[in-house]
Amino acid sequence: DARVTQTPRHKVTEMGQEVTMRCQPILGHNTVFWYRQTMMQGLELLAYFRNRAPLDDSGMPKDRFSAEMPDATLATLKIQPSEPRDSAVYFCASGFRDSTYNEQFFGPGTRLTVL
Amino acid sequence: AQKVTQAQTEISVVEKEDVTLDCVYETRDTTYYLFWYKQPPSGELVFLIRRNSFDEQNEISGRYSWNFQKSTSSFNFTITASQVVDSAVYFCALGGSTLGRLYFGRGTQLTVWP
Asked: What's the pLDDT tens digit per position in B31-84?
């Protein structure tokens, strides 16, 4: 049963520390998304990649957030330095874009708490 | 602009009642997709259904059914004979014609009491 995996599942850190979240998309998927869920903003897109190239990162605060895909099996989201307002659940999702539309499959999320 | 509105923030029902979750969307695209996701207390997002803008047929899957009406820009979700396990937050989402970003509503918290 293919699934998107995310690590860590929970992270508690102090303000100013670097946070790295990792995502392993479903094997063969060519599109990877990062979403953030907060009570205030709901679910919002931070960035997404196709074939490892960034297509849209307009939802991501550029000064402290960065997203990369070092290879097809790994996507990372980094926050440096972290702030309390970054506390949220961060979801990774993957999908395969071809001639037909395919849905996005979400990982279990990383719950981040910044103290 | 793409927008999804789920006006019902919370709904409480007693087991075996039918419940309908409302979803209204805005888009200028002629081709688009609508989705429903379920988020149980464990936190993951579970895909329930995808519907494209050219298919207005209602769909039924077990106790779940979906009513898509382009004339009112609505994509409502009905659970028949609700069960305690249906308790979750349900999200409606809008996507473009190709695999890309989803625009989510704020979600409806459904609580089913025994």
From this structure: 999 999 999 999 999 999 989 898 888 888 899 999 999 999 999 999 999 999
Is A34 near chain B, with CB under 8 Å? no
DSSP state letters, chain A: ----EEE-SEEEE-TT--EEEEEEPPTT--EEEEEEEETTTEEEEEEEEETTEEEE-TTS-TTTEEEEEEETTEEEEEESS--GGG-EEEEEEEE--SSS----EE---EEEEE-
Check whether the bond before A8 is cis (ω within 30° of 0): yes
Alpha-carbon span A94 to A106, nearest angstrom: 7
Residue of B nearest to A10 (CA): B43
Query: What is d(CA A99, CA A79) in angstroms, rounded to the nearest whole number?
Result: 35
* A102 band by pLDDT with thresholds 50, 70 and 90: low
> Taking CB atoms and an 8 Å cut-off, how many pairs form between chains A and B?
54
B106 contacts A42? CB cut-off 8 A: yes
